[in-house]
């Protein structure tokens, strides 16, 4: 499956840094801004923006501070992950199930590990690989990088992870500088089915503008990059209302436009670069820059790579947007605006957005996830990668977890933490892992009672030996039809072995030595 990564520059020096440095605002954006590796709140000078430390969102990794005085505060620290035993390193954010979120990850290498070239690694959101993080070119040009995705929340938490890949050098570690999780309104990008798809940002530009546009002009903290070319730039004479557009583009994005002459085609090579062959969400924004007039017509047709995108678009001073929820693009992209013969003015364009459509259908069954999250909370020292989706992506599954996948749903079928040095207790909800075939927790320091397992009808093997379990052996074990092996020796169990378990045909049962069981 192809993945588009977006690596656009955020300049590092104070005088040419992110555009919000030039503004002040009475409030924060709608969401959570996190400075990774920081121990204190990071405030952005001349604004009300502040990023909070990341300690409450992750429990793995090391912090470091970069040795430079001319960095943005959020780029001056980072968290890196040298722990090679973990299959992924995840931040967890509280979200509203069914909500829509813009997630931005920010990276600045800064030579934190003494090297000269940034490591290359993957980033994962939920249970889906989002993109490859490769900041090499940006870093060589003295810039940081960011990646964006719009995603629907399928649970009450959202995990944002980085992970090693086959492109990660053996002596390097994934890292991250900052994360932003911003809530979007229901109307925004509402033609996308966020139950099965996500939108990965490829380009977002304000045509004719020489400066970027972001918060507070865009309260959703989207960054609209400047775009100019050889074409004419015009300024608008009227103000549009952002609320009139589904996607809420900032009013400032309409202040300038790239324009063509009367009766002449306007061609724009945008987005820059070559796009991989797949489908994209494309939204284009237009406004007649002249003063309103009953006899003033600005009508033109829009084509993308020679294919009709919209015919006879009538652009007014109130503004208009046209979009495609799944437009095929491949290679270089050319937008052509062809004026109508009777149009009193030439074509123009104010802004545009392009997102790659990322299939987002596979996930671990929510009930299984809830059990595993509770189990992780019950452990004193869970494996470092026990955050995020327990199984997906498969190559980044939790340590010891195996699943089967049917259609788009993964079910946990095996849990093996044998001899992992883990202490804690088993939650009663372990009984909800109804697809479980094998539960191997032997050779650890589990304590407390063994829960009833009435619903584990597919359970074949149960290894709880060499722990500190107390109480009685659950009666339900003798009623499990698929059970063929039970190892309970060397615990502190009391009472008697349930008769159905002791007499079960074909069952390998070991309960001694080390328990206090009566015959």
TrEMBL record:
Q: Where is the signal peptide?
A: 1-24
* Ranges of residues in domain Malectin-like: 34-357
Q: Name one Pfam family in it.
A: Malectin_like
Q: Where in the cell?
A: Membrane
Which keywords fit this entry according to its UniProt record?
Glycoprotein, Leucine-rich repeat, Membrane, Repeat, Signal, Transmembrane, Transmembrane helix
Checking InterPro entries in the record gives:
Leu-rich_rpt, LRR_dom_sf, Malectin-like_Carb-bd_dom
Give the family this protein belongs to, as stated in its UniProt record: Belongs to the RLP family.
**What name has this protein been given in UniProt?**
Malectin-like domain-containing protein
Q: Name one GO cellular component term.
A: membrane
Q: Does the keyword Transmembrane apply?
A: yes
Q: Which domain of life is it from?
A: Eukaryota
Predominant subcellular localization, coarse grouping: membrane
Membrane topology (UniProt): Single-pass type I membrane protein
